[in-house]
Specification:
This protein is 56% helix and 10% strand. It is built from 42 helices and 17 strands. The strands form 4 sheets. The chain has a 7-stranded mixed sheet with strand order 2-3-1-4-7-9-8, with helices on both faces. A 5-stranded parallel sheet has the order 11-12-13-10-14, with helices on both faces. Strands 15-17-16 form a 3-stranded antiparallel sheet. The longest helix is centred in the first third of the chain and has 21 residues.
Length: 931
């Protein structure tokens, strides 16, 4: 058929019985047999209008618009396989299952309960057997093929734990009629409770836990995680999957209703229907019963009776074939225990939007959709609400209970409105199903349940840890949470270990080799913040937090200009959320001096990593509230603000900031910092085209730096003078100045500035026509900038390399480089870089003969340059003017003028969208022009 069918479909799933053993024993014969198997299935499915949407190994998954077609395809396949003469005396037997329902088609695949149901039905069968669900039976039973019938096998519990399924077997006169008992939950002793909804996702976790329990080395496995993580549901599914592997059964023991450890034994005994007898203690009776049993016990919610953990150890010692799967918010801490931390559901990253088809494959989104559709049948994820759904799941940390509670609200609120109200998620997320335990009916109750397990010292530490945004190290934990040594614990590390065991704290992945890092799920942190607000120490804890991160930033600042720059940038990136929290507190509490100092310390981090708008906002707000700040602090903040404004091409305001900073440094007699301020003032003046004034300022900065011994600012000044020399066509002088700047930066081991000067030199060589030398310098700069995470440097190198690629006859490669650079420029808000990258793209499109598109791009760049007041430098003129003239000469005047005007009149957002796309045709002019 042409494409995937939609609507109510019948699914046919197949796989080969014992295929792993066949591959091991007959690899060459199996290869040929599998090819024949695939051929038979493809022909039978295709001839009946089926759509094969997935093959996994020897398994086929197909969808049919008509149930009878699906049945005919299964029958034809079984007959062909039965008649086939297989090599080497082995026979391929294929089990098949059919189920009908409405599933969601995305990108050629299908998702939803019907797909999960047919997979479970398949797992119940045997090779050569074809099973049908009652839903499919209803559609085909009165129009069966000749010589066939459907045998009613009765209601059976499939291993998905939801409602029992009435199962039918396809019988044909020329196919084997009898098979062993179905592999359903009914085949083994168990008391696994039915579940109202299917398990969504968790395939990796189910497989991982089953693998551990199947192995001989693990007899006690504890699933840990905070409340609402889905530990119980995961344990039940694992137990269902393993039911065939325990001769004496699988039994679920719910411990949530009890809190007395002495009641654990009676509860287990009652579950196993063990009667008390005189002369034996309950423990002895339980051990005697289990001594020779091959059984799996699922002990659910062990955390509030954890003092009974030694009993589990005694049972395992006395009963060699017994295995225990426990769920708990804390480990049991007994010998032989294997912990399995249940992770959150797989989440999309809302900061990187994805196609709808990909987004809805994430476990958290799938759960939200299925539970939302249960509450409101017509709900679906659309292009309009997809980002809101992704953000909801991310805000809720992939916590299944929280997502389910949010999805229920879809009856009242659309996803966008739910997202807005998640600022207080503990208040919004209430009203779970009435048949859930009370502690699971609201998110708050679930967390409170864990909180009540803590002793007083742990509760205090738990509340104080809420001050950290994005996690913390043990060093930070001790410095902030126990600075006064007032915690009623031996130390903060002991408390952290306990909170970790109780699943209220998480050790972050990837921290094994470095100092460990700990964090809370945001839903748990919100509850902890409420507890912190209630404490008398709240304000002091926030002060200690801000002071700690100020010290960390000020310690890291000089290292950003040396060989430790990569490590220091990485540490600051990791702690950026904590820095933001400290800045927020400084503004709220009137501690502007601290906020200004922190902003100054973060300048080069913000600059390198592209946090320009954010840095400018923090500095402006702190300066506005910092009227009593020390003059030196204020000068540093003005200098820093001037840098980040300049990065955003806001040259006028940047110039004003540097002039004010320079005046303050002059009043303070601080020539070292005055030299740096005047150098950056010179850059702002140069960018606006005043080469004469810029030269005078650069020379003034150079003299001040040499006089004060500030060697750090000299390379930047030499770089500026080199630009001015190049502008004046003093090319040899420019190269000498750049060479001196590069040598000084290498001597000072200032990697950031080495990358900057290499970029400048490469661009200059490119303008002079030395393309190979230019590429060598630019590629070295690009490599350094990528290592540093310096987005601005990366974007500029990509732009220059893109221009080089066009000049060397590689316009397609040029477009790829330039578009990558343009996306970064847009993210950073660097309008000057956007303008030149648009010019590079115009040249590349012109080289490809896309003349109308090129003219529009030239018009966009022209308008943007005029809007921000930046003329061409000599290097830019040398590179772009010939390309512009050539493009214009290849197009008739009327066409050029119209296309150029269309580009010139577009708003910046529309211009960028056009430049990054490949769309053609007329462009609707936007009269607002570039913003």
């Amino acid at each position: 058929m042409d494409g995937p069918p939609t609507g109510t479909l019948t699914f046919l799933f197949t796989d080969i019985e014992g295929s792993t053993k066949l591959w091991e024993r007959h690899p060459s014969a199996m290869q040929a047999a599998l090819a024949r198997h695939d051929e038979i299935l493809q022909r039978a499915i295709g001839s009946r209008g089926g759509y094969v949407f997935k093959t996994v190994g020897d398994a086929f998954c197909a969808a049919f618009a008509d149930a009878s077609d699906a049945l005919e395809a299964a029958l034809e396949t079984q007959r062909a396989l039965f008649r086939e003469e297989w090599d080497e005396g082995f026979v391929i037997k294929v089990r098949m299952a059919l189920h009908t329902g409405a599933a969601e088609e995305r990108g050629g695949d299908y998702f939803g309960p019907p797909v999960n149901r047919v997979a479970r039905l398949l797992s119940a069968g045997h090779g050569g057997q074809t099973l049908l669900s009652s839903a499919t039976w209803k559609l085909v039973h009165d129009r069966l093929p000749e010589d066939t019938e459907l045998r009613d096998l009765g209601e059976r519990r499939l291993k998905d734990l939801i409602r029992p399924e009435r199962i039918f077997q396809l019988i044909a006169s020329d196919l084997p009629p009898s098979f062993p008992p179905l592999k359903t939950l009914d085949a083994r002793l168990n008391n696994l409770p039915s579940q109202p909804t299917p398990l969504v996702g968790r395939e990796r976790e189910v497989a991982g836990v089953c693998r551990l329990l199947r192995g001989g080395g693990v007899r006690l496995l504890t699933l840990t995680g905070p409340g609402g993580m889905g530990k119980t549901r995961l344990a039940l599914q694992v137990a269902a999957d393993l039911v065939d592997e325990f001769e004496d059964g699988v039994f679920f023991v719910p411990l949530a209703p009890i809190s007395d450890p002495d009641l654990v034994v009676p509860t287990v005994a009652r579950t196993l229907d063990i009667t008390e007898t005189s002369g034996r203690t309950p423990e002895e009776a339980l051990k005697d019963y289990l001594r020779n049993k091959e059984m799996l016990l699922v002990l659910d919610n062990f955390e509030q009776v954890v003092e009974a953990a030694p009993l589990v150890g005694e049972l395992l010692s006395a009963c060699p074939a017994l295995k225990v799967l426990a769920t708990s918010r804390t480990v049991l801490r007994i010998y032989g225990e294997q912990e399995f931390t249940v992770p959150p559901l797989e989440l999309p990253d809302p900061s990187h939007p994805q196609p709808l088809e990909r987004l809805t494959q994430y476990e958290a989104v799938r759960l939200f959709v299925e539970r939302a559709q249960a509450a409101k049948a017509d709900f679906s994820v659309t292009n309009e609400n997809a980002l809101a759904v992704a953000k909801i799941c991310a805000h809720l940390d992939g916590l299944p209970l929280a997502i389910e509670l949010a999805a229920v609200r879809i009856k009242l609120l659309p996803p966008q409105a739910i997202l807005v109200r998640l600022g207080n998620r503990l208040k919004l997320l209430t009203g779970g199903a009435r048949d859930l335990p009370e502690r699971q009916r609201t998110l708050r109750a679930t967390i409170e349940w864990s909180h009540e397990l803590l002793d007083e010292g742990e509760k205090i530490l738990f509340a104080r840890l809420a001050v950290f945004a994005g996690g913390c190290t043990l060093e930070a934990m001790e410095a902030v949470c126990d600075a006064e040594r007032d915690l009623p614990l031996d130390d903060a590390i002991e408390g952290a270990s306990s909170l970790l065991e109780k699943s209220l704290l998480r050790r972050e992945e990837g921290s094994e080799e470095s100092e460990p890092r700990f964090s809370m799920l945001e839903t748990i942190r919100e509850y902890a913040q409420e507890r912190l607000e209630e404490s008398e120490a709240a304000e002091e804890i926030r002060r200690l937090h801000a002071e700690f991160y100020l010290a960390l930033a000020e310690e890291a600042e000089p290292r950003l200009r040396g060989p430790e720059v990569v490590t220091s940038l990485g540490r600051l990136e990791t702690e950026h959320d904590n820095m933001r929290a400290a800045l927020s507190w400084s503004l709220e509490s009137g501690e502007a001096e601290l906020g200004l100092r922190l902003g100054v310390a973060l300048l080069w981090f913000w600059s390198a990593r592209g946090y320009w708008s954010e840095g400018a906002r923090w500095l402006e707000e702190s300066l506005a509230k910092g009227g009593t700040a020390e003059p030196a602090t204020r000068a540093g903040a003005l200098f820093s603000l001037g840098i980040v404004l300049g990065r955003q091409s806001d040259f006028g305001r940047a110039e004003a900031c540097q002039e004010e900073a320079f005046a303050l440094y002059e009043e303070l007699g601080d020539q070292r910092r005055a030299a740096e301020s005047i150098a950056h003032l010179a850059w702002m003046v140069a960018f606006q085209g005043d080469a004469g004034r810029a030269t005078a300022l650069f020379e003034k900065s150079l003299a001040a730096a040499r006089e004060s011994g500030n060697l750090r600012s000299i390379p930047s000044t030499l770089n500026g003078l080199a630009y001015i020399a190049f502008e004046s066509e003093a090319f040899e002088r420019a190269q000498r100045l750049w060479g001196a700047a590069l040598a000084l930066n290498r001597k000072q081991r200032n990697v950031l500035e080495v990358a900057t000067v290499l970029n400048s030199m490469g661009y200059a060589e490119l303008a002079r026509g030395n393309k190979e030398r230019a590429r060598t310098l630019l590629e070295e700069s690009l490599s350094l900038n990528r290592e540093l995470g310096n987005k601005h440097g990366v974007a500029h190198c990509l732009m220059a390399l893109g221009i080089a690629a066009t000049l060397q006859g590689e316009p397609e490669w040029a477009k790829a480089l330039l578009k990558e650079g343009l996306a970064i420029d847009v993210e950073l808000g660097s309008k000057a870089e956007i303008a030149e990258t648009l010019e590079g793209l115009a040249a590349a499109n012109g080289a490809l003969g896309e003349h109308v598109r090129a003219a529009r791009l030239w018009g966009m760049a022209k308008a943007l340059r005029e809007a921000i007041g930046i003329p061409w430098w000599s290097a830019e003129r040398l590179l772009h003017e010939p390309q512009l003239v050539a493009a214009r000469s290849r197009t008739d005047e009327a066409t050029w003028e119209l296309a150029f005007a269309e580009g010139r009149n577009m708003a910046l957002e529309g211009a960028v969208e056009y430049a990054l796309s490949e769309k053609e045709g007329p462009v609707t002019p936007l009269t607002t022009g570039p913003e």
